[in-house]
Write a structure and sequence with these properties.
Elements: E1 9-12, H1 16-27, E2 33-36, E3 53-55, H2 60-65, E4 68-71, H3 80-87, E5 92-94, H4 95-102, E6 107-111, H5 116-129, E7 134-138, E8 154-158, H6 161-165, E9 174-177, H7 192-200, E10 208-212, E11 228-233, E12 238-243, E13 246-251, E14 254-258, H8 267-282, H9 287-296, E15 305-310, E16 313-317, H10 324-332, E17 340-345, H11 357-360, E18 365-370, H12 374-378, E19 386-388, H13 391-399, E20 407-410, H14 423-437
Parallel strand pairs: 1-2, 1-4, 2-3, 4-5, 6-8, 6-9, 7-8, 9-10, 10-11, 11-12, 16-20, 17-18, 17-20, 18-19
Antiparallel strand pairs: 12-13, 13-14, 15-16
Helix pairs in contact: 5-8, 5-9, 8-9, 13-14
Length: 438
């Protein structure tokens, strides 16, 4: 039975998620009001004439009159107007909460600091290989509520900590926290505790919890009645083993697939593959289909993607590396005998960049630091670090210096929001300039 929604609804934030929520409510006969802190000229597209819109800030009077407030992931719950609305008893939910209230088919829910988009897409591909109609979205895109317009057998949803903060109705058939490392410290100034607690919400009503044996923070703090756990990592149910002189993905004592058959390489992707296998089997995707998808999936755009090769120079777009840990994974997979031109920078989100320092000391690594965090990143080793205001300026410098055999890597370790709408736009600019300059 369809959920009944009140007429007094306010949507806060009118990006892609806000637009999807507007369509969701309009389809159900509800005309919400829209609030956005940005100027109106930044609207994605014109609004229907009957929809009231306020830009440049939040209207407390609208919030206090609302029977339901839906916030986009980029909107912090700590905003004073939202705090006052909550104190007055106004329910505030996420777009994911709307999706969970409507959905009738099983959900695979995936979160973590790193790798969640890859695992989400991989599980989706496993379902397709099995002949299932699958809806893949959430933080990965498209917005989860748009998937309700499709007839699906299964939903595979990527969830950020922001989306989980205001979600209470998620009942995942299988859920995972892949890993927990410090991230979004600008949104969680009290440290990793609040970030970790937000991630834990994914397990609250899950029937199978898939955890990382190498990361204690991924273990559920509580389990739903009747729920079970499986593990992946260097030990646990799904793990890496040595078989016939090669590394294999394995379940218990049974080797399943040699890792050299994966299109995605690097130890972090081997663990991603193990997590995807565990999730797939938890929702009864046949193992043969899952193993086939592991061998055919070529990865996501903007995730360690070779976008141009010319004159012996390789240009790699890893714009989705918005955390230190993601960038470390990219750096660890690169050959050390080739000169690396490394582009890094953007908005720091309060991150500690210290773990990148050893790579900054290598003579074969040339750094180009751009955006808000340029000075902070250059300070890891001031000698030889280029600082520019923009990514484009840095790439023009690189174009004058590259030689055959070099690698140019955009792996920023930062968010894109200082100069771009999202990491995709940043990656697109890198790709366009690589083809133009390379």
């Amino acid at each position: 039975m369809a959920t009944h929604y009140p007429q007094q609804v306010v949507i806060v934030g009118f990006g892609l998620t806000g637009r999807a929520c507007l369509d969701f409510f309009m389809q159900r006969g509800v005309t919400p009001r829209i609030l956005d802190t940005r100027p109106q000229w930044q609207l994605l597209e014109p609004l229907p004439p009957q929809v009231a819109y306020h830009s440049g800030g939040l209207r407390l009077d609208w919030l206090l009159l609302a029977e339901l407030v839906v916030i986009s992931p980029g909107v912090a719950l700590t905003l004073p107007e939202l705090q006052q609305a909550m104190a007055a008893g106004v329910p505030i939910v996420s777009e994911i909460e709307l999706f969970c209230r409507e959905v009738t088919q099983p959900i695979v829910a995936i979160t973590g600091s790193n790798g969640k988009s890859t695992v989400t897409a991989w599980v989706g591909e496993m379902a397709r290989q099995a002949g299932l109609k699958v809806g893949v979205g959430g933080n990965l895109g498209p917005a989860a509520v748009t998937l309700l317009n499709q007839a699906c057998d299964l939903y595979v949803i990527e969830l950020s900590s922001f989306q989980l903060e205001c979600t209470t109705s998620l009942q995942a058939a299988a859920a995972t926290i892949l890993n927990v490392t410090p991230d979004h410290q600008d949104r969680y100034p009290q440290g990793i505790t609040a970030y970790h607690q937000a991630k834990q919400r994914i397990y609250q009503q899950a029937m199978t919890c898939v955890t990382n044996s190498d990361d204690p923070l991924t273990q559920p703090l509580s389990l739903a009645a009747g729920a079970r756990c499986s593990t992946f990592g260097s030990t646990g149910d799904y793990h890496l083993c040595c078989h016939r002189g090669k590394r294999w993905l394995a379940l218990a004592d049974k080797p399943l697939l040699p890792v050299h058959r994966l299109k995605l390489q690097g130890q972090h992707n081997h663990y991603n593959a193990l997590a995807a296998l565990a999730l797939a089997e938890a929702v009864n995707i046949p193992r043969s289909a899952a193993l086939q998808a592991l061998q055919t999936f070529t990865g996501l755009p903007h995730r360690y993607q070779t976008v141009w090769q010319q004159h012996g120079v390789t240009w790699i777009n890893d714009s989705k590396a918005t955390t230190v840990e993601s960038t470390l994974a990219a750096l660890q997979g690169l050959p050390t005998h080739r000169t690396l031109h490394w582009l890094l920078g953007g908005r720091s989100k309060g991150a500690d960049f210290g773990a990148l320092a050893p790579y900054c000391q290598r003579e074969s690594v040339q750094r180009y630091c751009f955006g808000e965090a340029a000075a902070q990143l250059a300070a890891l080793r001031p000698i030889g670090a280029e600082q520019t205001a923009t990514l484009e300026q840095a790439m023009w410098i690189i174009a004058q210096r590259v030689a055959p055999g070099d690698i140019v890597l955009l792996s920023p370790a930062c968010a894109s929001f200082d100069q771009f709408s999202n990491f995709e736009q940043r990656g697109q600019q890198f790709t366009q300039l690589a083809r133009r300059l390379g």
